[in-house]
Here is the input.
Amino acid sequence: AVATEAISYHMIYKHEDYKELEERIRNLGKQLKQLKDALIYGNAGAPGSTKKRQSERMLKVHEDNFKDYHRQLTARKSRLMIGTAFASMVTMYMVNNNYYG
Here is the structure.
């Protein structure tokens, strides 16, 4: 288990790509919160105004980007987790065959 976690840390969390994706997700989350607050509390303009429609479009774009980045992050993690799970199963199978009986 410790070896699997060490491999996961080295292959996922240590790389700059992961850190960049995490930072983008964090920043987009903050921007989404600000845009939603502006739309809810009326800072985006009067209903039906151009400013309000632009804010709604911007919110939609940010939500799509947030979902895309989150999907990329999840895909990156899941591919390696599947690989480490498979490697762990193979290792346990080999250990079991060598030390059985």
